[in-house]
Write a structure and sequence with these properties.
The complex is a heterodimer of chains A (381) and B (266).
Chain A lengths: L10 E8 L9 E8 L4 E5 L6 H9 L6 E6 L2 E2 L10 E4 L11 H11 L4 H14 L15 H14 L4 E5 L7 H18 L2 E6 L2 H7 L2 E6 L2 E6 L1 H6 L4 H8 L2 E9 L2 E4 L3 E5 L8 E6 L4 E3 L6 E10 L4 E7 L4 E6 L8 E6 L4 E4 L5 H9 L18
Helix pairs in contact in A: 2-3, 2-4, 3-4
Chain B lengths: L10 H28 L16 H41 L5 H13 L2 H11 L8 H23 L2 H12 L4 H30 L2 H6 L7 H11 L2 H24 L9
Helix pairs in contact in B: 1-10, 2-5, 2-7, 2-10, 3-5, 4-5, 5-7, 6-7, 7-10, 9-10
Chain lengths: 381, 266
């Protein structure tokens, strides 16, 4: 593992609060988070939810109005940025354009008074780790977006930070490059072993790279958990809609693992519910299919978008419920189709859950096969 | 074989080009005339009637050289004062939002709108005893050039890219002095150089304030130029004008090459 200089640190936010001068609403509202050493935590949420503000608080670029920030148990709230040893990779990378790649990476070591031979050795190591050795003598102005990102990360890692902060580091890249670099970046952070806080507003990115995801809205934490936890057990409608791209609806439990919604459409749930209770469900396109066997609910096609080999379709049932579904065939907007739940599918129940009860599921979540799905024909309904 | 595509004629562009050339000719024509006067033995006999001469240029240098060196010294002193007062002011205006910031910015620009004569008169009335020392001349030039200095530097200091780079440098362990030397200065170097050249150019060419505030021991070049116009021969005045242009034009060209069009956008 790389971090010879310092061991990866733990990070603890303790009731952090902050309001921007002149603003009335909180930018960060009583946030408490624990981050374990070497953990990769992704902060996700819509624009203006406080993700970047939280990162700037850790970096020491913003002093919170209330609360404590502990790095390895040390309260760092009053420390200036230069004494915190926190690596910072801003969204635009902010490379020093008057310096070449090597000098950019070695900048922090130079500021800290590391001797030239030792600095050269460490910079070389960092260039190798970030796979930018071939650009060592090039001006940063001549680099592509992906290369600039690596230089920014190498520069931050070179000073052996206790925590690395990455503020939407993939946002400036085009979609193809972003996907390609994402896995590389995850591997790089794993190899470095540094504790990382990663900000994004892209839910797919968050789920793909995180050890732990924190969903923020209006400066407050909505849910903290592993990607699997957040996907399968969204704490509220916001998390279900934002992170899971789900459509939320309310159904009635007809037994401990089956919920009926709309006009007799039934599905299994991914956790136990109480018969007769109202249950909020996160409906995803993976849960539904266009029926070809005459069973299902009648629905109007509202939209049909091609997304490479498959059509993303939204339909509305006669009772007004919106359902997401996919089809290999193009469907005309306004046409009527039959929609049913897929076989062996389970819908995520939205709402707080007790981890201790569901713990076994979380270790390796596999859809259960407790009951076959209930089919409803048009005639029956 | 490649066939060149015929570009459609753009009438407005052609008229604009002609207008620009016409304007340049009108502006440059006086310099051609001044040069011909300065190199003609007796202008009343016609241009170069008695041949070509450099006598007036050589003689005029003997006359103006003390004043030219004084003007250069004065402008460098003004640059120093602008550095000491203008840089912190620009920093505060660029980096901090506080009540009264806009008022301060407007106040800093007031000397642009106030006629130099009025400013010179105001300084003499307020500080009559300082005139002899020469401090008042420096103060007048400083007040006149400060808005341009601030206008050149403030936008760059407030540029988000400079701010971002500075924040990154802080997280990498650079304290404030190191950030200034290693990050901020390289980022604002061009704007700073443009500001310095602008101050030097303005100070070298400033007449109105200088005319009110100079004393016989401390006479700037434009004031001597004026004396030559009203008391000396026309050929001598033209030769002094040429020397003056030799100081100012290279500075103006350099300023333009450094992005002088941005100057003044506070």
């Amino acid at each position: 593992m790389w971090s010879r200089g310092r061991l990866a640190a733990s990070l603890q936010f303790d009731r952090i609060g902050f309001t921007y001068p002149g603003e009335k609403s909180f930018a960060i509202n009583n946030v408490s988070i624990n981050v374990k050493p070497s953990e990769l935590v992704v902060l996700v949420g819509p624009s203006g939810c406080g993700k970047s503000t939280l990162l700037r608080i850790v970096a020491g670029l913003i002093i919170p109005d209330s609360g404590r920030l502990y790095v390895d148990g040390e309260d760092t709230v009053k420390l200036p940025p230069e004494k915190r040893c926190i690596g910072w990779v801003p969204q635009n990378y902010a490379l020093f354009e008057h310096l070449n790649v090597t000098d950019n990476v070695g900048f922090g070591l130079r500021m800290q008074g590391v001797s030239r031979p030792e600095r050269d050795r460490q910079v070389e190591e960092m260039l190798y780790l970030c796979r930018i050795s071939e650009f060592a003598k090039r001006s940063v102005r001549s680099l592509s977006g992906g290369q600039r990102q690596r230089v920014a990360i190498a520069r931050a890692l070179a000073v052996h930070p206790r925590v690395l902060l990455l503020d939407e580091p993939l946002a400036a890249l085009d979609p193809q490059l972003r996907t390609a670099i994402r896995s590389d970046l995850k591997q790089l952070l794993r190899e470095s072993g540094v504790t990382s806080l990663f900000v994004t507003h892209d839910q797919h990115e968050a789920l793909a790279i995180a050890d732990k995801v924190i969903v923020l809205r209006s400066g407050k934490i909505e849910q903290v958990g592993t990607p699997e936890e957040l996907w399968n057990f969204p704490a509220n409608e916001f998390v279900a809609e934002f992170l899971n791209s789900a459509i939320v609806t309310v159904g009635t439990a007809i037994d401990e693992c089956t919920v009926e919604f709309d006009d007799g459409l039934c599905c299994r749930t991914n956790r136990n519910v109480t018969s007769g209770q109202n249950v909020t469900l996160a409906m995803r396109k993976e849960n539904f299919e266009i029926s070809s066997d005459g069973f299902g609910l009648k629905a109007h096609v509202l939209s049909c978008e091609y997304s490479g080999g498959i059509y993303q379709i939204k339909v509305r049932t006669e009772k007004g419920t919106l359902l997401p579904v996919t089809s290999s065939e193009k469907l005309a907007v306004g046409s009527i189709v039959l929609v049913n739940t897929k076989e062996n599918t389970e819908m995520a129940v939205v709402g707080a859950y007790e981890r201790s009860v569901e713990d076994n599921w979380l270790q390796g979540w596999i859809p259960s096969t407790r009951q076959p799905r209930i089919r409803v024909s048009i005639e029956d309904s | 074989m490649r066939v060149k595509t015929q570009q459609p004629k753009d009438g407005i562009r052609s008229i604009g080009k002609m207008y620009a050339w016409g304007l340049a000719t009108v502006c440059l024509l006086p310099i051609v005339f001044v040069s011909s006067v300065a190199t003609t033995p007796v202008w009343q006999h016609g241009p170069w009637a008695g041949g070509f001469t450099l006598d007036w240029i050589i003689q005029s240098w003997m006359v103006i050289s003390p004043y030219a060196f004084f003007s250069i010294k004065l402008s460098l002193l003004v640059v120093m004062v602008d550095f000491i007062i203008g840089i912190p002011t620009s920093w505060v205006l660029a980096r901090h939002r506080f009540p009264g910031r806009d008022v301060l910015l407007s106040l800093a620009n007031v000397p642009i709108a106030v006629p130099g004569i009025a400013m010179g008169l105001a300084l003499i009335i307020t500080y009559p005893l300082l005139r002899k020392s020469g401090f008042l001349l420096v103060a007048g030039h400083f007040l006149y050039t400060l808005p341009f200095f601030i206008g050149s530097l403030t936008p760059q200091l407030g540029n988000p890219s400079v701010h971002d780079a500075e924040e990154v440098a802080a997280t990498l362990g650079a304290n404030f002095p190191k950030r200034v030397i290693h990050v901020i200065y390289p980022k604002v170097r061009t704007s700073l150089l443009a500001a310095v050249i602008m101050v030097v150019t303005l100070s070298l060419g400033e007449f109105n304030i200088s005319f009110f505030l100079f004393n016989p021991q401390n006479k700037p070049l434009p004031v001597e130029l004026y004396s030559a116009y009203i008391t000396g021969r026309l050929e001598m005045a033209a030769a002094i004008t040429l020397w003056f242009l030799c100081f100012v034009v290279p500075a103006a060209i350099l300023l333009e090459r450094l992005g002088g069009s941005k100057v003044g956008q506070a």
